[in-house]
Amino acid sequence: MDTKRFPDDSLLRFPEWVLRGIGQVVFQNNPFSGLVILAAILFNSWIYFAICLLGAIVSTATAMVLRADRALVSSGLFGFNGALVGLSLVAFTSENFRTGAAPSPFMLAYIIFAAAMTSVVFSAIGALLQPYRVAALTAPFVLVGWLFLFAVLRFANIESGPLTKPVSPDEYVQTTQYLLPTWYMGFGNAIGQIFFQDNWITGYAIVVGIAVNSRISAAMALIGAVLAAGVAALFGGPEGAIRDGLFGYNAALTAIALGGFFLVVSWPSFLYALFGVVVTTWLWASIAVFLEPIAMPVLTSTFVLVTWLMLLAAPGFRSLIPVPPAEATTPEDNRKRVLRGPALQAA
Amino acid sequence: MDTKRFPDDSLLRFPEWVLRGIGQVVFQNNPFSGLVILAAILFNSWIYFAICLLGAIVSTATAMVLRADRALVSSGLFGFNGALVGLSLVAFTSENFRTGAAPSPFMLAYIIFAAAMTSVVFSAIGALLQPYRVAALTAPFVLVGWLFLFAVLRFANIESGPLTKPVSPDEYVQTTQYLLPTWYMGFGNAIGQIFFQDNWITGYAIVVGIAVNSRISAAMALIGAVLAAGVAALFGGPEGAIRDGLFGYNAALTAIALGGFFLVVSWPSFLYALFGVVVTTWLWASIAVFLEPIAMPVLTSTFVLVTWLMLLAAPGFRSLIPVPPAEATTPEDNRKRVLRGPALQAA
Amino acid sequence: MDTKRFPDDSLLRFPEWVLRGIGQVVFQNNPFSGLVILAAILFNSWIYFAICLLGAIVSTATAMVLRADRALVSSGLFGFNGALVGLSLVAFTSENFRTGAAPSPFMLAYIIFAAAMTSVVFSAIGALLQPYRVAALTAPFVLVGWLFLFAVLRFANIESGPLTKPVSPDEYVQTTQYLLPTWYMGFGNAIGQIFFQDNWITGYAIVVGIAVNSRISAAMALIGAVLAAGVAALFGGPEGAIRDGLFGYNAALTAIALGGFFLVVSWPSFLYALFGVVVTTWLWASIAVFLEPIAMPVLTSTFVLVTWLMLLAAPGFRSLIPVPPAEATTPEDNRKRVLRGPALQAA
Fold first, then answer.
1. Cβ separation of A128 and C312 shorter than 8 Å?
2. Residue B235 and residue C126: Cβ atoms within 8 Å?
3. Confidence check: pLDDT of C345 > 80
4. What gap in Å lies between CA B33 and CA B26, rounded to an integer?
5. Is A234 in the B-facing interface, judged by CB distances under 8 Å?
6. The pLDDT of residue B289
7. From B23's CA, which of A156, A166, A313, C327 has a CA 20 to 30 Å away?
8. Mean pLDDT (chain C, rounded)
9. pLDDT grade, residue A160 (50/70/90)?
10. Which one has a higher pLDDT value, C37 or B338?
11. Confidence label for A300 from pLDDT (cuts 50, 70 and 90)
12. In the predicted model, is pLDDT for residue A166 greater than 90?
């Protein structure tokens, strides 16, 4: 662990770390990716833009106050779960899911505590997974998101709208035909839904934000969204859920994570990633059913579950070359290092 | 980890590995056990016979394609969860639970992916548990089974029958009297239910398959089934559930696992196993209630939970001698090695 | 691990170990704390008094029979989960929650098995958490409590009353005004509810029992209860739930655990503990909602979850000094050792 503490330039570099944090939602440790993504969110809603920024600021600052490892903070790793928790708390308590509603003072205090808690949970899950060399992914967001979303409904002083967004495929009409917009809107929405943005143009702009840092990651995100929509359609999933990108947002994240980021790009690892995308697509529907009795959204739990299982399994399969989280940069870089140096060796 | 890769004889030995996989459902690394068990299933239904074989073939082949450790593959350890997942997906989507229905092409593709996924999950859970020297047991089957069973209900193109089999003791009439068939059918059905076979003769034939490899394991399976039925009756469990073997199939597996396989046979370990059987019997009912809101079957989750807890605890108790998973062969063999050599020492 | 076995004085010292076990519910390894707490429970109900003693005796004796580590047994660490499981099984199956009902012979056998099982689960969870240097807390009680509470409803021969105690804030009227008794009764009840005692005088007496061993722990317990009630009121929680101490019993335990016991007392760790108390208060409501579909009580699960996360995270934050479970004695002592010797170093 890096023992260097925060020197004088911390305040100057803080905005950069926050932007990296927003990029890290889609595995891009690059402030320009973060900037493009923020702009894409602003295009959809200034409320979500402000909340996304607030969440990343609070969770990054919490880590600094608690004197967390500087290398982790400056890579934005404490920011992305805070951003997502802020977005989810607003999204699921707003009358209008698409634009979000400005939170009340009580709700704001609540969001700030939730974002701070993601930094604690990120450190906790990181400690649990450290022996296995697997990253926490968005698990801190999923855990804190679920717990705080539940509790919000219990308190009279937090006004919460109904959960107006369907959270399970059951809530869509089964008989609608697949049309052209099912596809081009569905692919974009799948990327947008990662940030709770129900806007397909925002989704494609986020892909551009990813491509700023890694073309392979951008391509994998699209491949994930397309394959998920295809599989859902082949098995008769409802048109509305496909068009809203619901089958695809977990699948797109699985595709980025397994497609070169935590496993060196190769034919076997590419096929392994596609297998993961198909399984993620099905299991999104599955976890939605699990959560129905308590009326909770899936968030990115399917991505976390499938990617964890497939990365934990990887060292046992000699056709795959895992990249330890601390060394994972971009698919392009990971591959170069392996081709150059001696092969990374799984434990 | 064994680094030998699959040499030329892999294709020749593949059928043997698949048969060992079927034997491993009940902890028997012996192709003849697998053969007897397959014959017992065929006696009940050719559909289950074919699906059991298909599941074991797919999951074993997946492990080979991904270049998993040969020692694990050739012991059948990648096969048994695949076999069980195939059986469960057919059992719980068929109009007639007892004989099963031939799956549609969509369902078949789905089963193949599920069986392949068990190999990934087996490797993942194995990695998680490796520091604790505890085996994955049937956890990959339970996890993949639940997730894929849920999702199946979401897709229009997979025809799924109603869950026609009661999955919880609540669904049985409480007032029926215990009669002779309650017992002799109940004991056999408990063993049969391990493989989703609602046929008490098949159950006893499976005991014979176990005895081919280990008489102690066969005896423990019966002791588990008998004690479970007795405890359930003593506490007033419904007659139908006892006769169908529902209280007993998890208990029988707990009895085999703790009765000499992962703990060296001795008086303390025998009493520890009996304690585990009683707890498993009660907790089967408990987990059924947990799962009722989402209408899911217990599968072998109770066995996995209780056996994991009791094996994780074992190194802390000096009256027990644990056998590491990699060294566990048969109760007879485990005991001989300990009596011969220096005592195995718990950490 | 200590390899000394139980010498001749075991029987003589057994009552002391049982009393320490009762003190350990609130982290006090002191037989006099246990004695005061037992007296406080007896003041409320002789049935709970007897069951609390029985649970601690059974689980401690189980650990001795299985030849567990003597140092753990003689610190009362095998006793506290057994005591809590006994209390919970009586509390939630009695017509009158406040006084409890004497259990039937079937129920008694069931409680004895449950208490014995907590010793197995304590050892199992201890093994799982050992690499992370985090204690099992009351997780064995929560897990065994849930599983055995569920199962109890399935068996005709165990008479179980209705769950007469509200287990979720939804069940209280939202419109009642906060009055003086809301506060002084609410704070006491929060401490009492740790032991399922719906009696605020008993609660304050338990605080005295804690103070016998550590004034800091006693103060933290009260701070936890007060802060929880304040936060719940600020966010509009129902008056009845606050007065019954339901928001506070998990928060009080979190406050003791983080307030000097597992983290050396300092300003940062004190603020960290207060943050944990606020989060615990909210999440108690959250977990109550999670459990509503299956009608289960929260028990101390919120305390376990939040405290585990915050302790797992602590070594990653250089502003906190964790105390390994094996070295944690009292907040006063932990702090003295650090000030005297070289600073404890987080991994």
1. yes
2. no
3. no
4. 9
5. yes
6. 78
7. A313
8. 90
9. low
10. C37
11. very high
12. no
Residue A175 and residue B72: Cα distance in Å, rounded? 47
With CA atoms as reference, report the closest residue to B151 among B83, B93, B80, B104: B93
For C155, the closest of B235, B283, B310 (CB atoms) is B235
Residue contact B67–A278, C-beta within 8 A: no
Residues of A in contact with B123 (CB under 8 A): 312-314, 316-317
A126 in contact with C, Cβ within 8 Å: yes
Task: Tell me how far CA of residue B79 lies from CA of A7, B18, B86, C62, in angstroms.
Answer: 55, 6, 11, 38
Tokens 């009055």: give the residue: C179
Cα separation, B317 vs B296, whole angstroms: 35
**Can you spell out the DSSP letters for B193-228?**
HTTT---HHHHHHHHHHHHTT-HHHHHHHHHHHHHH
Instruction: Take residue C288 and report the two structure tokens written for it.
Output: 């109550």
C 133-172 near B (Cβ less than 8 A): 146-151, 153-158
CB C78 within 8 A of CB C126: no
Phi/psi at C322 (5° precision): -75, 150
**For A256-276, what is the mean pLDDT?**
97
Highest mean pLDDT among B157-166, B177-186, B246-255: B246-255
Q: For the segment C115-162, what is each residue's pLDDT rounded down to a tens digit? A: 999 999 999 999 999 999 999 999 999 999 999 988 876 666 665 554
d(CA B314, CA B276): 12
* Cα Rg, chain A, nearest whole Å: 19
Structure tokens at B190: 């408990």
Residue B340 burial (C-beta neighbours within 10 Å; 0-12, 13-18, 19+): exposed
Mean pLDDT score, B15-41: 97
Name the residue type at position C326. Answer: A
Q: What is the pLDDT of residue C97?
A: 84
Q: Which whole number is the average pLDDT over C225-250?
A: 93
Nearest to residue C278, comparing CAs of C323, C230, C322, C345?
C230
> What mean pLDDT, rounded, does chain A reach?
90
Contacting residues for C87 by C-beta, under 8 A, at least 6 apart: C48, C51, C52, C55, C195, C196
Report, in angstroms and rounded to the nearest whole number, the Rg of chain B calculated over CA atoms.
Answer: 19
CB environment B136-172: b (16+ within 10 A), e (fewer)? bbbbbbbbbbbbbbbbbbbbeebebeebebbbbbeeb
Domain annotation for chain C: domains and CATH numbers: 14-152 (1.10.3430.10), 169-340 (1.10.3430.10)
What the block records as the tokens of B130 is: 């490796």
Q: Look at residues C274, C264, C249 and name the one whose alpha carbon lies nearest to residue C189.
A: C249
Task: Please determine, for residue A175, whether its predicted confidence score (pLDDT) is greater than 80.
Answer: no
Lowest mean pLDDT among B35-49, B284-298, C326-340: B284-298
Show Cβ contacts of residue A229 under 8 Å, excluding neighbours closer than 6 positions. Answer: A182, A183, A186, A187, A190, A242, A247, A248
Q: How far apart are CA A246 and CA A168, in angstroms?
A: 9
* C316/A106 touch (CB, cutoff 8 Å), yes or no: no
Q: Is C317 on the interface with A (CB under 8 A)?
A: yes
What is the token pair recorded at C174? 């939202």
Query: To which residue do tokens 């009642």 refer?
Result: C176
Tokens of C63: 């650990």
| One-letter amino acid for residue C57 of the chain | I
- C31-43 average pLDDT score: 97
SS (H, E, C) A52-86: HHHHHHHHHHHHHHCCECHHHHHCCCCCHHHHHHH
In whole angstroms, give the CA distance from residue C273 to residue B343.
46
- What are the helix (H) ranges across chain A? 10-24, 31-44, 46-65, 70-74, 80-91, 105-129, 139-152, 180-193, 200-213, 215-234, 239-243, 249-256, 267-291, 301-313, 331-340
Q: What is the mean pLDDT of residues B283-303?
A: 87
pLDDT at residue C224, as a whole number = 98
Q: In angstroms, rounded to a whole number, what is the distance separating the alpha carbons of residues C260 and C264? A: 5
